[in-house]
């Protein structure tokens, strides 16, 4: 009987989500993309995704759970997480194959942009390319993995932009708001070096979205000019985990991540701060005055409800938000197929072309 009740509730939640998406799609705010494949190929892809999810949960999430068991001792939890970080960053904890990325490293300040009339190879009228400041997600506690760096490199090649990977201090040693403060420092450093805010875009995946959007609120509070736009991949924007997707995806093999591990990471990051503080959970923030936002995600992602709520809030508060979502069974961009990567990069390129308004002096 409980199983029948759970199934009925799951159907109600799916209907509710579809209704919300239908409203956004009618307003041309959301768009669903489908991976073109025959039934056999789709079935195999979903099977492989379930296997990958199981591997990720076994290799990575189980280790986080071990740290969780030591959470009654902050020192013990910090020691266990520190031991994980080396293997995660070096690739020793890789759950899927990847190649060693080239040309993507920690943040370094590029030269100030050149301004001229000669078109560059991306077709823009100015002689420089836009710069993307990217924050890779890691649950606030892990550094960028090799696979994330690989994904960022592929994205940089596809959209013909200079992407700078912005690192930040990690929790629990450096809790909130250290990470968004670090990002603010990197961005304002570029402005001090002569970059124009109109040449800069922010981008992030998963927990990195919380960091970037927290930084936007800090910059807005200090009357610092905001960037031209923001691109978010599978954004984690609600550390209170109030969205239905946290429950529904945690009960299935659709996502390798679970509410318990998300709650653990959020607590290590926030510590004594409330989970609804807008600087950490931007679904509770006022998006008025924010630059345009492009969101890419999968309808099977545990953070899917966060993406929907960001789009809904943007509609109410006058922020230009576009939500693109795929029917891919995988978590986020680093695990998507080459076809979805190409589709996603094309949408990102179009977004940057639309939002980028470089100086013409």
Question: How would you describe this protein?
Answer:
The chain is built from 10 helices and 7 strands. It has a 7-stranded parallel beta sheet, with helices on both faces. About 9% of the residues have low confidence. With 361 residues, the chain is α/β, with parallel strands linked by helices. β4, α6 and β5 form a beta-alpha-beta unit.
Percent in strands: 5-15%
Fraction of residues in helix: 40-55%
Morphology call: globular
Topology order in helix (H) and strand (E) letters: HEHHEHEHEHEHHEHEH
Number of DSSP-assigned strands: 7
Termini gap: 71 Å
Uncertain segments are 95-127
- Give the averaged pLDDT, no decimals: 79
By secondary-structure content and strand pairing, the structural class works out as: alpha/beta
| Count of runs of 4 or more consecutive helical residues | 10
User: What is the alpha-carbon Rg in Å?
Assistant: 20 Å
Sketch the major β-sheet.
Answer: 7 strands, parallel
Strand order of the largest sheet: 1-7-6-5-4-2-3
Short synopsis of the structure:
This protein is an alpha/beta fold and 361 residues long. It has 10 helices and 7 strands.
Write the layout of secondary structure elements.
Elements lengths: L1 H25 L3 E4 L5 H31 L4 H17 L40 E5 L10 H14 L2 E4 L12 H15 L7 E6 L1 H15 L7 E5 L10 H7 L8 H12 L22 E6 L5 H14 L3 E6 L11 H18 L6
Parallel strand pairs: 1-7, 2-3, 2-4, 4-5, 5-6, 6-7
Features:
single chain; alpha/beta; 7-stranded parallel beta sheet; 10 helices
């Amino acid at each position: 009987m409980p199983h029948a009740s759970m199934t009925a509730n799951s159907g109600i939640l799916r209907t509710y989500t579809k209704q919300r998406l239908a409203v956004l799609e009618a307003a041309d705010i959301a768009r669903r993309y489908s991976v073109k494949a025959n039934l056999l190929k789709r079935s195999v892809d979903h099977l492989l995704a379930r296997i990958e999810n199981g591997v990720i949960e076994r290799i990575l999430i189980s280790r986080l759970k071990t740290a969780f068991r030591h959470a009654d001792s902050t020192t013990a939890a910090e020691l266990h997480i520190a031991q994980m970080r080396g293997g995660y960053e070096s690739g020793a904890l890789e759950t899927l194959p990847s190649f060693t990325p080239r040309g993507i490293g920690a943040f370094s300040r590029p030269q100030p942009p050149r301004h001229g009339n000669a078109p560059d190879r991306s077709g823009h009228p100015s002689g420089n390319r836009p710069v993307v400041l990217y924050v890779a997600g890691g649950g606030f506690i892990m550094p960028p993995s090799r696979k994330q760096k690989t994904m960022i490199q592929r994205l940089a090649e596809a959209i013909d932009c200079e992407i700078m990977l912005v690192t930040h201090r990690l929790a629990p040693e450096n809790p909130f708001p250290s990470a968004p403060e670090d990002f603010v420092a990197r961005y304002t450093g570029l402005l001090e070096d002569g970059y124009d805010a109109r040449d800069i875009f922010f981008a992030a995946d998963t927990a990195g979205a919380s960091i970037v959007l927290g930084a936007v609120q800090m910059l807005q509070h200090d009357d610092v000019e905001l960037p031209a736009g923001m691109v978010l991949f599978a954004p984690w924007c609600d550390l209170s985990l109030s969205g239905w997707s946290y429950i529904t995806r945690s009960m299935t093999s659709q996502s390798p991540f679970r509410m318990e591990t998300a709650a653990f990471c959020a607590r290590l990051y926030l510590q004594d701060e409330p989970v609804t503080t807008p600087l950490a959970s931007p679904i509770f923030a006022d998006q008025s005055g924010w630059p345009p936002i492009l969101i890419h995600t999968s309808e099977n992602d545990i953070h899917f409800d966060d993406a929907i709520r960001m789009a809904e809030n943007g509609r109410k508060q006058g922020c230009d938000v576009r939500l693109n979502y795929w029917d891919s069974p995988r978590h986020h961009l680093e695990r998507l197929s080459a076809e979805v990567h190409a589709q996603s990069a094309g949408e990102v390129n179009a977004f940057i072309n639309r939002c980028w308004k470089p100086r013409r002096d």
